[in-house]
Write a structure and sequence with these properties.
The structure is a single chain. This protein has about 200 residues and is of the alpha+beta class. The protein has a domain of about 120 residues. Helices cover about 30% and strands about 10% of the residues. The chain contains six helices and six strands; from the N terminus they run ββαααβαααβββ. The strands form three sheets. A two-stranded antiparallel ribbon has the order 1-2. Strands 3-5 form a two-stranded antiparallel ribbon. A two-stranded antiparallel sheet has the order 4-6. The chain is globular and about 60 Å long. It starts with about 35 loop residues before the first strand and ends in an 11-residue tail after the last strand. The relative contact order is 0.14. The C terminus is likely disordered.
Length: about 200
């Protein structure tokens, strides 16, 4: 937003979550510039102005897409999940998702959380998808693993930490992540003990 100090400022029309399908997945992942962006604009009604100030995800998405292309040039073997992790864990602290995207920091993360198709299949099985639904969704002969795992995303969100669940787990809630060190880094399990607690970022 223009004439606002300090910046950035979350636009009133922007979604701040939560994820309605699965509240235990933190959304939005990151924020990016998307208000009053000077952009190329198609001409109509005899307009001769090729540019316009535009707002919305149509403007923030190109910013993130450019950062993704930059990261892919630095790390050509990284998966989409690894690139997403780098942008989320290095974002500047903000009030939505992992924070406001920081391209310079994203190019030098200390670690990334990677995931592939099997991670997603295990996650869907944990949500209750059976083999028939999985095969329709993936168009493959996918099968649920014996031990469905947490989705290996770069954040932890706990939407409903009930008292009974706390007691069953001896006063704690455990969610596991696996990371790949880009530099010198250590991964550890994270325990959260408060209701509606989310912990984005490096661990």
């Amino acid at each position: 937003l223009t004439n606002q100090k300090p910046a950035p400022l979350m636009a009133a029309f922007s979604s701040s979550g939560p994820n309605l399908v699965d509240p235990d997945i933190l959304t939005p992942d990151i924020t990016a510039p998307g208000v009053h962006i000077l952009a190329a604009y198609r001409q109509f009604n005899n307009s001769k102005v090729p540019y316009k100030l535009v707002s919305g995800t149509s403007m923030s998405c190109p910013h993130v897409s450019g950062i993704v292309a930059l990261l892919k040039s630095y790390y050509p073997t990284w998966s989409p999940a690894a690139i997403k992790s780098a942008t989320a864990t290095t974002a500047s602290p903000f009030d939505s998702g992992g924070g406001h995207v920081n391209p310079n920091a994203a190019a030098h993360p200390s670690l990334v959380y990677d995931a592939d198709e099997q991670d997603s299949i295990g996650y869907l099985c944990g949500l209750g998808y059976n083999q028939t639904k999985l095969q329709i969704l993936t168009q493959t002969a996918a099968k649920c693993p014996d031990n469905p795992t947490d989705l290996n995303c770069p954040s932890i969100a706990i939407s409903n930490l009930s008292r009974s669940k706390v007691d069953e787990l001896h006063g704690s809630y455990r969610s596991t992540r696996e990371c790949v060190g880009v530099g010198s880094s250590i991964c550890a399990a994270v325990q959260a003990q408060r209701r509606d607690e989310s912990i984005p970022g490096d661990i």
